[in-house]
Amino acid sequence: MNEQLRAISELDRVIHEPGRLMIVALLAVVKECDFLYLLHETEMSNGNLSSHLARLEEARYVEIEKTYRGKVPLTLLRLTRAGRAAFEDYRKALKAAFLAALSVPQAGFNEC
Amino acid sequence: MRRPKRYENIDGTGEMSMGVMMLSFALVGCLSAVLPEGALWRKNGLATFEFIPVVMIPIWAFQHWGVKAIKKHFTWPRTGYVAYRRSGWPWWKVIVATLAASAVFGAATACLMVLARRFHALSLERAVYLAVLLAAYAFFVFHWSRQQAWKWLVLIFMALGLLAIALVVPGGAVESFRPVALFLGLVWLGSGAATLYS
What we know:
B: mainly alpha
């Protein structure tokens, strides 16, 4: 197994989980959004989304700001600088691993 | 997920803004026609240019209060709140590019219309002016059509309406400006409202 393929085992596990990956990918393309927006976009349940966000907040990848719009409570979410950097690293590592996997000589499979 | 990458005209506020703008222009046209010759509004025959800030007030008011209220009471409770990141271009580049494109497009249209008027080809002048309006709206409809295919019907309705006005009201683009502005204002306001409630 080459070096780049081995990098898969070192991927950031906080981001790697599909639900959290979806959240981080969505937050990466926006400046900020509220809880409802993420709920619509991810189609997760309230509890599921909350637990994933708590995990991301714990890793300091997501900043959660509880505020009010008039008298209505509003939960604003944004990716932190560390979160953005971690997502970028994750994206690069995964891309490199896929490229490495595609460059494995096909003849090798026939010989096994 | 079959959701759009980016919400485009999700609440129709863009169209409604264009509608308010056209209705403001129609109002200016009406004032110019109704007020007496010596009125300040019609002084020097440059009413539209001198009082452009007056025209801008309804547009500004709609943008400032109307759009904010629609976003707060309809859009965000429905879709959630999202603020997109700015594009890669700095703001001044976007403004310069928009101004340059508008200037080139506007100058080309104006030249065609002036030439048509000089050669008394009023039908050509009006055709150019209506084609520009239709092309501009078609550009937006093309953008929105993935989520709102019914906007093509609005475009067809708009084309038929403009054709009807062209057949009924004699003269060139200037003469037919008021009914065209009124018609487009109402169509865009209606189309935007339909988007908001769809």
